[in-house]
Structures are given as structure tokens and as C-alpha cells.
Design brief:
globular; 26% helix; eight-stranded antiparallel β-sheet; 176 residues; Ribosomal Protein S5, domain 2; alpha+beta
């Protein structure tokens, strides 16, 4: 169940052991200071760095799967073309933890054209595309992030990628 932080527009929370948060939420204009800048947030407010200063665009579900040391997260957001996908990936990778991930595999159907990138996790993008096509999700990118834990997962990695995408579709209400 999401927990609202002190400031309107921020949502932080937990679903089991999975952290749920949005990257880059905008503060309401009423909270902006003179000259349109956002007031400084209190130290130790518990908000991820950068939250409250950028346009709302990407939702992240972190720490959703753990198997033999490998950990998974799933994220996504609206994107109408490859440039918007690249911007969302750059936004995600501004978080040092995601930038250091072993794989940030993604898939999207942009204007009816399927596009994907396995990012070294062979076959992950194709599986994600298949799931997005079944869900009829257009102009939306889904990113599955994996931090390698030192042990090969074999075919289980595909099950984890599919579970991550299912989690995203269910939690966002975008799936069938």
C-alpha cells in the first residue's frame, strides 16, 4: 500500500519487500518559491535525490524478485519514439544503483513498431515484447533491471523477466 510523504505529489511505499516510487515528480506551482524554483527540501526527508524537481514520467518497482543473489526491478513510462525511450533510460540511470546494474533490458511498441534492447540479457527483450503485444500496450516502455548475483540462473531468468513485466502491468493497471 503506497504511503504519501509530507509533500503532495510524492508517493513512496512498500508492497511486501518491493519498494515502489516514482522518479521525477513535479511539485504543485503553489509550492514553488520566487522565480519558479522549488524550495529546498528538509535534510533526511526520505525522498530519493532529484524527486520534486523534474517532470513526472517513470514509475519504478524496486526489489521485486531475488534469486541466488540476483535481484530484479521493473520500471516504465510513456514513450512515443526512441528519443523518449532514451530519455527515460537516462533518467533511470541517473540513479547510481540502476546505472551500475548488470542489465537494463527494455521493450516497447512505438507507433506500432516493436523495438527492444536485451542489454546483454539474451532473449529478455523478445520475451518482454511478446508480453507487451499480448497486453496491447502501445507507446509505453518497460525496463527490467537485473543485478547479477554471481550464479547463473539458466532458464529461470526468463521466468523472472516475465514475472517482473507481469508485476508492472498489474501494479500500473495497464495489463489485460
Amino acid at each position: 500500500m503506497p504511503i504519501e510523504a509530507d509533500n503532495p505529489g510524492y508517493i513512496l511505499g512498500w508492497a511486501g519487500h518491493a519498494a515502489i516510487y516514482e522518479i521525477g515528480l513535479t511539485r504543485p506551482k503553489a509550492e514553488l518559491g520566487k522565480g519558479g524554483s522549488a524550495p529546498a527540501r528538509p535534510v533526511g526527508s526520505g525522498l530519493p535525490r532529484g524527486v520534486g524537481t523534474k517532470k513526472k514520467s517513470m514509475q519504478v518497482f524496486d526489489k521485486i524478485i531475488s534469486d541466488r543473489g540476483s535481484r530484479y526491478a521493473v520500471s516504465g513510462g510513456a514513450a512515443k519514439n526512441r528519443d523518449e525511450v532514451a530519455a527515460l533510460l537516462a533518467e533511470l540511470k541517473r540513479n547510481k544503483r540502476f546505472a551500475k546494474a548488470t542489465h537494463n533490458s527494455w521493450a516497447a511498441i512505438l507507433g506500432g513498431e516493436p523495438v527492444k534492447d536485451d542489454d546483454g540479457e539474451t532473449g529478455a527483450g523478445a520475451l518482454m515484447l511478446q508480453m507487451l503485444e499480448r497486453a496491447r500496450l502501445q507507446d509505453h516502455v518497460v525496463v527490467v533491471t537485473r543485478w547479477y548475483g554471481g550464479k547463473h540462473l539458466g532458464g529461470d531468468r526468463f521466468r523472472h523477466v516475465a514475472d517482473a513485466v507481469r508485476h508492472y502491468l498489474r501494479e500500473t493497471g495497464l495489463g489485460d
